[in-house]
Fold this protein.
Amino acid sequence: MVLCPEDRKAEGIIPVHSVRDNINISARRKHIHAGCLINNAWEASNAEQHIKSLNIKTPGAEQLIMNLSGGNQQKAILGRWLSEEMKVILLDEPTRGIDVGAKHEIYNVIYALAASGVAVVFASSDLPEVLGVADRIVVMREGEVAGELLHEDANEQQALSLAMPKVSQAVA
């Protein structure tokens, strides 16, 4: 199980490291030689593969990740987890604060992960986004499950009615 956190700058990236390091940090332990030597050839190849496949806009793999746009930082975080064998990925507000083009690229990654059998848990406060991406929607209210909607039956009105507190009627 892996997590792409909501606050990518504080919890997702290592800002003073390169795009290459940010992509490889989790998979590095599997590719160390003699117990302590980093496999630079593998890391360079892996980073370039994810930069290309995720269309990360960067001058190069050695660019500091803090100099990239939010969307490209988010794609690098996804690249980190695509280097791992995972069964579940938790995406917490994965498209918050990124441009429309990067959003669609991230949606394509989500669809590809789901098609490959990875369970994608997608948390978002953007209701139209949830309605467009999710095949099943679990609505939370005050920390508890308020209801569940299937994609084909879901609409904004139903989701909002589950999310809003119930108003009790006073009997006169």
User: Anything to note?
Assistant: The radius of gyration is 19 Å. The domain at 2-124 is CATH 3.40.50.300 (Rossmann fold). Residues 139 and 145 are 6 Å apart (CA to CA). The chain has a mean pLDDT of 91.
